[in-house]
Amino acid sequence: MPEIDIDKLDAQQVQLLAEMCILIDEEDRRIGAETKRNCHLNENIDRGLLHRAFSVFLFNTENKLLLQQRSDAKITFPGCFTNTCCSHPLSNPQELEEKEAIGVRRAAQRRLKAELGIPMEEVPPEEINYLTRIHYKAQSDGIWGEHEIDYILFVRKNVTLNPDPNEIKSYCYVTKEELRELLKNAARGEIKLTPWFQIIADAFLFKWWDNLNHLNQFVDHKKIHRM
């Protein structure tokens, strides 16, 4: 396995590697906790280590989707374009609570503030809608990767943005047509997308987007989509 040279990594991002993620089995049952660092090492992923995560898709009142480009300081998938916010609930009492995925929704509220500067009162957990879950695995490089059961969360609201440049290189609101063009650019190798965003865009996103006023038909809290 390649050596990890911590000195070459961003100091602020290295601090976040100590956060405790929620370990789960393939049915999303909690089995323990582990550091963000250990959860994202390919050598542990190859042994089956799996953690709980979420992906937020935030639309404004014009039904445009907020995208971000991850900062170059990020340890996994730096510089990649992705959905509004992607992160992990932590192994603490607030974010471990599973009823109606309230812990995951609280984590999303926390990270929307940390990454995008969205005031927490603008995105209360009750306005963050949980659709379904996706299980995927992807390598970022020879050392780091992802292996997650990802809760898909939708928000429809105009929000105040003040992004943290250590987290986000750029951001934009896009229409469906603009996202399709972005996906074409990625297919040509002109830009990079995160693997989870590519998977969700290919399999689900546009049909969800077409039905923003009727999302209840897609709510499925029993099935875990294996991608």
TrEMBL record:
Report the Pfam families cross-referenced here: NUDIX (PF00293)
User: In which pathway is this protein known to take part?
Assistant: Isoprenoid biosynthesis; dimethylallyl diphosphate biosynthesis; dimethylallyl diphosphate from isopentenyl diphosphate: step 1/1
Localization terms from the record: Peroxisome
Q: What are the protein's GO molecular function terms?
A: isopentenyl-diphosphate delta-isomerase activity; metal ion binding
Q: Which CDD domains match?
A: NUDIX_IPP_Isomerase (cd02885)
Keywords attached to this Swiss-Prot or TrEMBL record, sorted alphabetically, are: Cholesterol biosynthesis, Cholesterol metabolism, Isomerase, Isoprene biosynthesis, Lipid biosynthesis, Lipid metabolism, Magnesium, Metal-binding, Peroxisome, Steroid biosynthesis, Steroid metabolism, Sterol biosynthesis, Sterol metabolism
Question: What residue stretches are annotated with the Nudix hydrolase domain?
Answer: 49-199
E.C. designation(s): 5.3.3.2
Cofactor dependency: Mg(2+)
The GO annotation for biological process reads: cholesterol biosynthetic process; dimethylallyl diphosphate biosynthetic process; isopentenyl diphosphate biosynthetic process
Alphabetical GO CC annotations of the entry are:
peroxisome
| Catalytic reactions on record | isopentenyl diphosphate = dimethylallyl diphosphate
Q: Its family?
A: Belongs to the IPP isomerase type 1 family.
Q: Which PANTHER family match?
A: ISOPENTENYL-DIPHOSPHATE DELTA-ISOMERASE
Which purpose does this protein serve, as stated in its record?
Catalyzes the 1,3-allylic rearrangement of the homoallylic substrate isopentenyl (IPP) to its highly electrophilic allylic isomer, dimethylallyl diphosphate (DMAPP).
Name of the featured protein: isopentenyl-diphosphate Delta-isomerase
* Species this protein is from: Neomonachus schauinslandi (Hawaiian monk seal)
Q: What is the lineage of its organism?
A: Eukaryota, Metazoa, Chordata, Craniata, Vertebrata
Query: What's the name of its gene?
Result: IDI1
